[in-house]
Amino acid sequence: MKEKSKILYVEDDPSSEILVRRVLESEGFQVVTASNGLSAIETARNELPDMILMDINISGLDGYEVTTRLRTIDKLKQIPIVAVTAATLSGDRERALTAGCTGYIPKPIDVDRFPEQVIAFLTGTTEEIESAEEKAEYLREYSHRLVDRLEEKIRALEENNIELQRLDRMKTDFIIIAGHELRTPLTTIYGYAQILQTNPELPGSSENPGSPRFLVEKMTEAVWRLNQVVGDILNVSLIDANKLDLSKGPVFLNSLIQQAVEDVNAIGGDRQLIFTLEGLDDLPMVLGDSKRLYQAFWNLITNAVKYTPDGGHITIKGRRIEDAIQIAVQDTGIGIDPEDLDHIFDRFYILHDTALHRSSKTAFKGGGLGVGLAVARGIIEGHGGRIWVESEGHDEEQLPGSIFHILLPIGEL
Known about the structure:
The protein is an alpha/beta fold and 413 residues long.
């Protein structure tokens, strides 16, 4: 036996874990522990212990199931796994050996004999079921038990899934109703604020902080922003519930995208970003919902703006591919990590550090709710299209940038 052998002890009872650890460490062993079945498998993979002491009655996967799983892992097939358990009824030893254990030590352990027992199993001692017929009987029993446990787990998962779906529907319905309830007073406030803002008799100016006109304009901007937030939450909920209504008609993507760029520039012109539009003039009309498509392109363009440093370049290209239109929104920004590419369109997925969150839609690395790209995907897919992204990685110095691709069917006009 090599010095300082590493032993993994799988035990969910803290007092037993402390006792065994102290006994083994006093004999010079290195001890690592796990408190449940899944963590035992992960720890065994990472630590590659010389021996595993396995409590049978642990939470989640029990000791039998964990042992059987460990025996399928190449690097763990040959190591001794010894059941250290209070399961001492008739047949418990044989069941442990059938599951793949090489030995069996009943609890409570004999503190004086325990180190010798561990050394014996480390140096090659194994226990076996003597009778072949008895071994076959226990193997059949264990196979039936595994099937029963699998059925039990599947039924529990199905019940939990049904409950999660019910709760998700309740949450979605609540958000949709709350969104509509919030929209009504927001629309009223925004309307009256605009009336005040356009009143030539309103004293003060936009550049004079504290004046009535300045205050009204700031209030209007705040209500508009709040209305956008409510709209984003409402739209992502409608998409999740497959309730996003589309009022389709002829849409000129050229003018729609140009309008989105102009509106983004109107609120973020101080960023000095350069926009280039290519190939949009030659695009045919498509059949779609102009308001929804505007929202999708607005979200994509503001996303490019947020992750492109001041003075950067955003290029929007369009071309026809057979019966579809392809639009590419390319930026010279900080790019996207490879591990984020598969999640970038997930709802509430946020790339930036939330501790640095800002509510601006156009500030460099400005914040948001993490729903803009999810809404864009839902709208594009609602039109029968596709959306995807390419990026060579994230680098705030080299600025590899990103390209968002949209493929929209033209449709029958």
